[in-house]
User: Fold this.
Amino acid sequence: MNNTAVLQVGPLMPLVQDAIVGDYGALRLPDSVPDQEEFLRRHGESFGVAVTSGKIGVGTELMRALPNLRAVVNFGVGYDTTDVAQAVQRGITVSNTPDVLNDCVADTAMALYLDVLRKTSAADRYVRRGDWVDKGNFPLATKASGKRVGILGLGRIGQVIARRLEAFDCTISYHNRSRVAGVSYEYAASPRELAEGCDVLIIAAAGGPESAGLVDADVIAALGAKGYLINIARGSVVDQEALVSALLAGRLAGAGLDVFADEPKVPEDLLALDNVVLLPHLGSGTHETRAAMAELTLANLRSFLATGSVLTAVTV
Ligand code: 8YV
Assistant:
């Protein structure tokens, strides 16, 4: 094996896995730690490229155990599980799959938005339990159109969410690392200021060390007892304990969550709350979008192996 050998890190869609094994003879990193250590001792030096997903990534220790690594090809737009700082330091290219999933992740944000405000999942449970017959009409919900919505992270996905909210006559404001050129939405100087000025806070910021805990107890308090929180980004952006205690104490009206701090674990306390909608991190999970992500992942791999550069590189 020379050092263009391909390593598979974690499970991948069959389409991607079959292609990297069939076309490049990729070897898969074993799942158990002792097996991994033995495998890396024997083969670690041979790998030039690792193909992984945003869920697993190439973390600090694994990257160190791959001394000749030249590229991490990541399935997913988020790459917070990969040690990008080490990659930059070592000149390792990292690619992701931006843009092709914007529509589906934004649609998921809208599904949560409508569900949390109009309580459609709770109402569905109401019908199934027979409560419509036994108890009569379902309690009134909250109007979804025309709300003030704050978007934390007005990147590619945040901007698509904003466009969808415009069709619901919402007033949109945002906070971002820097102001975004060419948009007319009001800019808030901090997450706290954003939360203070909106009815619904939608988190669309990238994960990773820079955004960890950005939505803390203070921001949640600023959103207030009539405020709603939607998160389709990463669980790490929110102080999950603060979120759960605000929901339990009625200091927040509701939440729609596709992502959590320690997936697939969901805080037990949330399971009983009817004003919370819980999704199993399915933001990009449609046949069409996952196929497009798979195609872009393979195109990045092919491009790197042929030319030494990828099509959609992560830039930090
Ligand atoms: C994927 C995601 O499910 O792209 C992302 O960042 O969170 C999702 O689209 C995930 O990355 C696949 O591992």
Notes: The chain has a mean pLDDT of 97. The chain has two domains: 5-99+289-307, 102-278.
